[in-house]
Amino acid sequence: AQSVTQLGSHVSVSEGALVLLRCNYSSSVPPYLFWYVQYPNQGLQLLLKYTTGATLVKGINGFEAEFKKSETSFHLTKPSAHMSDAAEYFCARGGSNYKLTFGKGTLLTVNP
Amino acid sequence: NAGVTQTPKFQVLKTGQSMTLQCAQDMNHEYMSWYRQDPGMGLRLIHYSVGAGITDQGEVPNGYNVSRSTTEDFPLRLLSAAPSQTSVYFCASSSRDGLARNQPQHFGDGTRLSIL
């Protein structure tokens, strides 16, 4: 079965520090991958997506992710964390039958 | 644009009660789906529909029914609520063409449901 694994259910960084949220997927073929963000008591908002083409994907709010086929990874990064980045982040993959498979989420805390 | 609208936003039920969670989209999207979100579990697909009159089960369908009589609406029914169904429920939609191109799904703001 296709799966998405997010390493670390909780990541804590200082304001201004690098943000690195890890996502690995299981697949024998390159998948379609997404990162979503969820702020408290809100729905999910798309940060960025990888379909085909360039492996470094830039998203909103200064986030980017790099698709590495050899490592089956799609880690999310941001050079400098801001207090407003505190949220829960979900990695997801698209399947051939229109279904999205989500990771379990990573809660990002940003300390002043 | 309204996008995906879920009602109600909050609901408390007693065990055994029935309820319908409403989801409506105004983007003429063919594909609609329901997820539940539980702490540490991410989002899990309950049911989905690829068009009016067509529904199918997702990962965790037990205890839930759906129907799709119109393109716009995709209600989720709990026939006999159980405490295990306490969760946050999200509805999402996308155009079929968009899904074929793996465009992202649009999510509603969620319904927070507590079963006592």
Give your account of this protein's structure.
The complex is a heterodimer of chains A (112) and B (116). By secondary structure, chain A is mainly beta. Chain A has no helices and eleven strands. In chain A, strands 2, 4, 5, 9, 10 and 11 form a six-stranded mixed sheet that branches. In chain A, a hairpin with a 5-residue loop joins strand 6 and strand 7. Chain A is globular, with a radius of gyration of 13 Å. In chain A, 38% of the residues are buried. The model of chain A has no long low-confidence stretch (mean pLDDT 89). By secondary structure, chain B is mainly beta. Helices cover 4% and strands 50% of the residues of chain B. Chain B is built from one helix and eleven strands. In chain B, the strands form two sheets. In chain B, strands 2, 4, 5, 6, 9, 10 and 11 form a seven-stranded mixed sheet that branches. In chain B, strands 1-3-8-7 form a four-stranded antiparallel sheet, with no helix packed on it. In chain B, strand 5 and strand 6 form a beta hairpin. The longest helix of chain B has 5 residues. In chain B, 38% of the residues are buried. The mean pLDDT of chain B is 91. At the A-B interface, strand 4, strand 5 and strand 9 of A face strand 4, strand 5 and strand 9 of B.
Largest protein-protein interface = A-B, 22 and 27 residues
* Strand/helix succession of chain B: EEEEEEEEEHEE
Order of helices and strands of chain A: EEEEEEEEEEE
- The low-confidence runs of chain A, each spanning 5 or more residues with pLDDT under 50, are none
Give the fraction of residues assigned to helices of chain B.
under 10%
3D shape of chain A: globular
Instruction: Kindly name the structural category of chain A.
Output: mainly beta
**How would you characterize the largest beta sheet of chain A?**
6 strands, mixed
Q: How many beta-strand segments of chain B?
A: 11
Query: So what's the overall shape of chain B?
Result: globular
Total number of strands of chain A: 11
Beta-strand content estimate of chain B: over 45%
Tell me the strand percentage band of chain A: over 45%
Question: Could you report the average pLDDT of chain B, rounded to the nearest whole number?
Answer: 91
| Count of alpha and pi helical runs of chain B | 1
Q: Specify the helix fraction band of chain A.
A: under 10%
